[in-house]
Specification:
about 475 residues, alpha/beta, nine-stranded mixed β-sheet, 12 helices
């Protein structure tokens, strides 16, 4: 039996055991009719061999060390009627569609979970591993690097599928509470340039979202899990050591403050938000501790208990590209090796045209909505700018949890205003992600309309205050 077959054999055997556990051990009993059940699991995902890192085109070699381990963590929940859901948080830049689809398809086969019931959330650390077919035109990788990245990516897919099963295996009766605090180290990077001395906090220009949503999961003995988020790029560090950046340090700190809890960080709509100043390990630790301190303050205050009802829905909306690339311009860029990632992007596009491939005119953008009791949670794909969270909270209430970087990180998701202004988020980032052009000007309307469609499907109504504002 070769090593690859042996690995797949044992993976299949373990999954069969987990399937049996999920479907047999956790049927609804009379005692659990009116309460939540939940289970957590975590697995280290730090690469064990040197490989290319994700997030910066300026890097010139593989990782050389580790500041702290990288993790994937899962919180599985079941409501009083037996409806299942799982949130997975991962210390990586972002899962591309090819990987998230593989994970979700395997979970449907093995566990009977459709994709509306699984949220794959990425911390967006820029000190994690590069992944298959994700920003691959940015990095100056060799064929050997690509092979290594592919091997790691396939292993990560297997790890996450197993992790989800393990979380369901660990389920016990719990109560779930929600509340929020705030911390203000995020800075709008479009309106407050990092190359200049930052103005005092009161003089900094927005928009921004300082909210720290916190979900607490308590079993009979202690706090089983703490799920918290913040809308700010994980870009304090740009070196060659594996690290979860400030979200990684925040999770470590929360777990130290509350022994027995599994701390899980999700990235908000922080695509145009940076932690400033940055570029020192001490600053990543400082921001992590500030975030963890906010989480601690929230936990120690009264919170709203969430009733044991879970509704989930998921859908795609086609986001159009503004135009298809001009062949002459592509060939000019493809011939100019001084253009870096633009050169590699143009080469890729020319090759696709030469191979007779059709350049897509739109992209299937994922939108997901959960309704946990009275708590609405909206999960959006891509690198979402902060205006979306602001608008959605204005529409559905300030306690609405809005997650970015979920399920598929395919590009920046700007507003119409940012598209018009241009800059990296509006005009350049799509090339970085190997897309053919910028988004069409109706992107904002299409995404918000899809959210309204899905929330209406779950019976979530706009509050009176939002209706009056219209």
């Amino acid at each position: 039996m070769n090593k690859m077959f042996s690995k797949k054999y044992w993976l299949f055997l373990i999954i069969l055991i987990l399937i049996f556990t999920i479907h047999v051990d956790y049927g609804i009993s009379k005692d659990l009719k009116n309460e939540w059940s939940a289970g957590v699991a975590k697995i280290e995902i730090t690469p064990q061999t040197p490989m290319w890192m994700a997030g910066y085109s300026s890097r010139v070699h593989e990782a050389t060390g580790t500041l702290h381990p990288l993790w994937a963590k899962a919180l599985a929940v079941k409501d009083g009627a037996g409806n299942l859901g799982v949130i997975v948080t991962i210390d990586i830049l972002g899962l591309p569609k090819n990987m998230s689809d593989t994970i979700l398809e395997q979970c449907e086969i093995f566990y009977g979970l459709d994709r509306s019931r699984i949220i794959l959330s990425n911390s967006h650390t820029h000190s994690g591993p590069a992944l298959r077919k994700s920003l691959d035109k940015v990095y100056p990788t060799t064929p050997e690097h690509v092979q290594q990245i592919d091997k790691y990516s396939r292993h990560l897919e297997d790890q996450i599928v197993l992790l989800i099963g393990q979380a369901f295996e660990n389920m016990s009766p719990v109560s779930i509470l929600a509340s929020q605090g705030s911390v203000d180290f995020a800075v709008n990077r479009r309106n407050n340039r990092s190359g200049k001395k930052l103005p005092k906090k009161k003089d900094q220009k927005g928009p921004y979202d300082y909210t720290v949503p916190v979900i607490q999961v308590h079993n009979q003995d202690d706090m089983l899990a703490t799920v918290f988020g913040y809308a700010c790029h994980a870009t304090v560090l740009n070196g060659y050591d594996w690290c979860g950046d400030y979200p990684g340090y925040a999770q470590i700190e929360v777990e130290d403050m509350f022994p027995g809890t599994t701390a899980m960080f999700f990235q908000g709509c922080g695509a145009d938000q940076n932690p400033l100043p940055r570029r020192k390990v001490s600053l990543a630790e400082k921001y992590g501790k500030a975030l963890a301190s906010t989480v601690k303050d929230v936990i120690e205050k009264p919170a709203v208990e969430i009733s044991p009802e879970l509704q989930c829905t998921f859908g795609y909306v086609d986001l159009d590209f503004a135009s298809l690339p001009d062949r002459n311009l592509l060939e000019k860029l493809a011939a100019d090796s001084t253009k870096g990632f633009e050169h590699r992007w143009a080469q890729s596009m020319v090759q696709k045209l030469d191979d007779g491939q059709t350049i897509p005119q739109s992209y299937p953008y994922p939108v997901q909505v959960w309704h946990m009791g009275e708590q609405t949670l909206i999960a959006l794909g891509g690198e979402v700018v902060v205006d979306y969270a602001i608008q959605l909270k204005r529409m559905f209430g300030e306690n609405t949890i809005v997650m970015g970087y979920c399920n598929d990180v395919m590009a920046y998701i700007p507003t119409v205003q940012i598209l018009r202004e241009g800059g990296y988020e509006g005009a350049q980032s799509q090339i970085v992600y190997d897309l053919p052009s910028t988004w069409s000007a109706d992107i904002e309307n299409r995404i918000l309309s899809k959210v309204l469609e899905l929330t209406d499907e779950l019976g979530i109504k706009l509050p009176e205050s939002a209706l009056l504002a219209e």
